[in-house]
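dude i think i finally got it to work??
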Amino acid sequence: MVKIKFCGLKRREDIEKALELSVDYMGFVLYEKSPRYVSFEELKELLPYARSVYKVAVMVNPAEEQVEKALEIGFDLLQLHGEESFEFAKMVGIERVIKAFRTCPGLEVEEEWKLAHGVLLDACSYAYGGTGQRADWELAKGLTRRGFRVFLAGGLNSENVSEAIREVRPYAVDVSSGIEIKPGIKNHKKMEEFVHAVKNALKD
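look at this
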């Protein structure tokens, strides 16, 4: 089955609901300008609840010290959502990096990124994720066919995720705003509906 990543988690009750739904990845935003930002102090309280899943630190152009601190407090993976180079990803550990790309016209993803844990494809936007806008599914489909481990993000919700899975055949789907009441506050019914839609996407 396609893996599921819930992103932008800020509350213990949302983490526990995600665990109940058996999601595979949980993303926590360490980018201070995001409405879903969580501080290192808050993370020390929250991360222990996120057991048995990949815990992902979502970072934008972080310093090496920030990366080290994130790994020290218990994150398994780093989602690099800015303009980070392949060299930087290699330095911090390429196998634990999910590199995010905005699917703007002319985007080229070099073959070397196949060494990463995955590539996340988001909408073409000046914002760093969480916009609710849709990514370029055709571009995503092309990368899947080329053998990339694609995390499809960008405007996914329970109404369109089944179609996205059938169209793109990604390794994983990533949702944030599509399961929210407002940024960082998840709607448990929407969480359930999203997981149900993913599980049934390829049954027809």
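The beta strands are 3-7, 25-29, 54-59, 77-80, 97-102, 118-122, 150-152, 172-175, 180-182, 185-186.
im so relieved honestly
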